[in-house]
């Protein structure tokens, strides 16, 4: 299925709990000056920032996968635009946070992250409102398919995040000598 290639983006744009999944810190940033892993390095994380091309590819794949009809296009358009707008707002907020991060103390860092989460939650609410109207127009077959896609996307995204975390732990482990 073409849609499976876009599930990470789907999870980011469609599932609030997944939207704030952290990027893994580069190995160098996760090291202390002594060369040992810094177990707190991931605490100063920033969410993943999808490229505009990824957002557009996700929108097209989702449109195709859900089988949006000509009659549903009027409801699809605002939903798709919300995804674009949310992606741009997330990008801007992440860039702003990344620019400030080196000068933030721990309290400011947490506050910055909290503000990002609040903004993202608001965006997800507006996206959900647009999707609810679209979903209401779906046939039974489309609804069943959408339900399955979202369920599978959540499970696959969670598994991918766990695999990344395991891989990151393995790459920071000191080899036996």
Report on the architecture of this protein.
One of its GO terms (cellular component) is periplasmic space. The structure is a single chain. This protein has 6 helices and no strands. It has 177 residues and is mostly helical. The protein has a domain at 58-139. Helix 1 (7-14) packs across helix 3, helix 1 packs across helix 6 and helix 3 runs antiparallel to helix 4 (73-100). The model is unreliable at 1-33 (pLDDT under 50).
Q: Which radius of gyration do the C-alpha atoms yield?
A: 19 Å
**Gap between N and C termini:** 45 Å
User: How would you classify the helix and strand content by structural class?
Assistant: mainly alpha
How many helix segments?
A: 6
| Record field, number of beta strands | 0
Helix content: 55-70%
Largest sheet entry:
none
Order of helices and strands: HHHHHH
> Any low-confidence stretches, pLDDT <50, length ≥5?
1-33
User: What is the oligomeric state here?
Assistant: single chain
Name the average pLDDT: 76
Give the CA-based shape: globular
Signal peptide: 1-21
Keywords: Signal
InterPro entries: LTXXQ (IPR012899)
Region (Disordered): 26-51, 143-177
């Amino acid at each position: 299925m073409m849609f499976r290639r876009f599930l990470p983006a789907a999870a980011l744009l469609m599932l609030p709990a997944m939207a704030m999944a952290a990027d893994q810190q580069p190995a160098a940033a996760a090291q202390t000056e002594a060369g040992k892993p810094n177990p707190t390095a991931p605490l100063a994380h920033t969410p993943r920032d999808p490229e505009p091309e990824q957002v557009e590819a996700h929108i097209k794949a989702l449109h195709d996968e859900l089988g949006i009809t000509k009659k549903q296009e009027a409801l699809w358009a605002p939903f798709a635009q919300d995804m674009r707008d949310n992606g741009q707002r997330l990008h801007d907020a992440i860039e702003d946070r990344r620019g400030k991060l080196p000068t933030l103390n721990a309290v400011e860092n947490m506050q910055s992250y909290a503000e990002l989460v609040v903004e993202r939650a608001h965006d997800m609410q507006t996206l959900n409102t647009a999707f609810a109207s679209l979903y209401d127009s779906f046939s039974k077959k489309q609804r069943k398919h959408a339900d399955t896609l979202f369920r599978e996307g959540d499970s696959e995204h969670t598994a991918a995040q766990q695999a990344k975390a395991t891989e990151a732990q393995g790459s920071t482990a000191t080899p036996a000598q």
